[in-house]
Amino acid sequence: MTPNTSDHATDVESSTKTTTAAGETDSALVTARRQLERAATHADVDDGVVERLKHPTRVQRVSVPLERDDGTVEVFTGYRSQHDDVRGPYKGGLRYHPEVNANECIGLSMWMTWKCAVLDLPFGGGKGGIAVDPKSLSHDEIERLTRRFAEEIRDIVGPTRDVPAPDMGTDAQTMAWFMDAYSMQQGETIPGVVTGKPPVIGGSHGREEAPGRSTAIITREAIDHYGRDLSETTVAIQGFGSVGANAARLLEDWGATIVSVSDVNGAIYDPDGLDTHAIPTHDEEPEAVLEQDAPHTLSNEEILELDVDVLIPAAVGNVLTDDNADDVQADIVVEGANGPTTFAADTILEERGISVIPDILANAGGVTVSYFEWLQDINRRQWTLEEINEELEVKMLAAWEDVRTEVERKDLTWRDAAYVVALSRIAEAKAVRGLWP
Ligand SMILES: NC(=O)C1=CN([C@@H]2O[C@H](COP(=O)(O)OP(=O)(O)OC[C@H]3O[C@@H](n4cnc5c(N)ncnc54)[C@H](OP(=O)(O)O)[C@@H]3O)[C@@H](O)[C@H]2O)C=CC1
Ligand SMILES: O=C(O)CCC(=O)C(=O)O
User: Fold this and answer.
1) Does the Cβ of 111 fall within 6 Å of ligand 1?
2) What is the pTM (predicted TM-score) of this model?
3) 3/405: higher pLDDT
4) Which of 17, 54, 115, 127 does the annotation list as catalytic?
5) Based on CB atoms within 10 Å of each CB, which residue in 91, 249, 250, 329 is the most buried?
C-alpha cells in the first residue's frame, strides 16, 4: 500500500484543537509549540532551527480495518508522527485511546524529541497510535488491529528508522504482536523494531516499571533539592497504570505517604496513607481503584486540588488548566503523564511559586530503558534487572543534574531548563551535521 504521508502536515496541524471553559486552546501541539517558543528565548539557538522544530518531519495517517468477532468490519484511524531524527531514529510510544488524533501525536512526538535529548539518548522523537477504546475490543480484536496497524506503517518504522514502544492503552503484548507482524513481513525476526516487548522475545527487564521508577527518582531528588524529607512527604497520584502505580509503590517503599490515587472512575483518599501494593494496577485489573477500602473517595478533579506536598498527574494530558491551576495546593507538581499541564496553567503555577518538574525529565525512564532494550537487541545479550535499574539511576541523575544546573545558572523554571538542555544538544547536532533547516 502507498503510505498516506504528509511531509508538512499542515492539514492536520490546523485541526483538532480543544478549548477549555476559559477559552484556552490546548491541543498537545499548541502546548508543545508555546513551550518551545518560550524556552527558545533562554537558549542560544538559531531562530530557523526553532521554526523548523515547530513542525514534524512527517505524519502518516492510515485506515486500520478490523474484522470484529461478530464478523462485522469497523475501520479505525491510526497515526505515526515523526518529529525530528537529527540525533538518531525516531522513538516513542503507540497510544490506543479514543482521543488519539494527528495533533496529539505531533505534540507528543515533539516532547519525545526533547525527552531523548534531555536524557542524551541517540534518538529523535516519534509518537503514534489508534483512535480506539481498547476496553471495547476483545483480546483477539486488539491483536488483529495491532497486526494490521503494523502492516500499514511498516514502510516508515524499523530498528534504525523509527522504533515504537508502549504508551497509554498498549503494553508488552501489543509490542509482541507488532514485532511479530513486522518480522513476518520482513521475512526475519527483527526484535529491535519495537521496545517494551516481553523479555522472552528480546524485551528488557524493568521496562514496564521504568517510567514510574524515573518519576519516583525525580520526585525524590526534587524533595531533597527543596530541603525536605521523603518520610515527611505526602503525595497524590492521578492514574494507576504503568507510570502512576509504579511511581506510587516505589515512593511508598522509600518512605513517602501516598494519600490518594485514582483511575478513570475517580480517586480514593486516606490522609494516613494508602497501601499502594494492595491496589491492583491498570495492568492487573483496570478500573479497580474505587473498589478498594478507603475512608474517602474523590473525583479526578478533586484529587488535583488536594493539600499535599507533591502532586503527580500520571494519566491523560491537559488536566491542569487555567480553570483549576489556582486551586492546586501541592508545593511541587511532578509530571508523570505527558502534557498534563497546559501553557496557561504553567504560567499560573509559576506565579504561585509551585514548581513543575516536566514530563520530558520525570517520566523519561520509559524511553531510557527502551534505549537499553534496543542496545540489548543489537548485541543479543540480556541485562539483569539490577543492571537495568543501576544504569537507569545513573542516567536519571545525570539528566537531573544537567537540568538543575540550568535552573540555578539562569534562574529558569524546571521546564524551561529542561528545554534549554534539549535544544542546545539538538541544535549542536544539526550544526555539526550541516542539516539545516
Ligand atoms: N507507558 C509508558 O511507557 C509511558 C507513559 N507515559 C505517559 O504516562 C501517562 C499514563 O500512561 P500509562 O501509565 O502507560 O497508561 P496506562 O494505560 O498503563 O494507565 C493509565 C491510567 O490512567 C487512568 N486513566 C485513564 N483515563 C483517565 C482519566 N481521564 N482520568 C484519570 N485517570 C485516567 C487509567 O484508569 P483505568 O485503569 O480505570 O483505565 C489507568 O489507571 C500517559 O500520559 C502516557 O503518555 C509517559 C512515559 C512512558
Ligand atoms: O519507550 C519509548 O520509546 C517511548 C515511551 C513514551 O512514549 C514516552 O516516554 O512518552
Assistant:
1) no
2) 0.95
3) 405
4) 127
5) 91
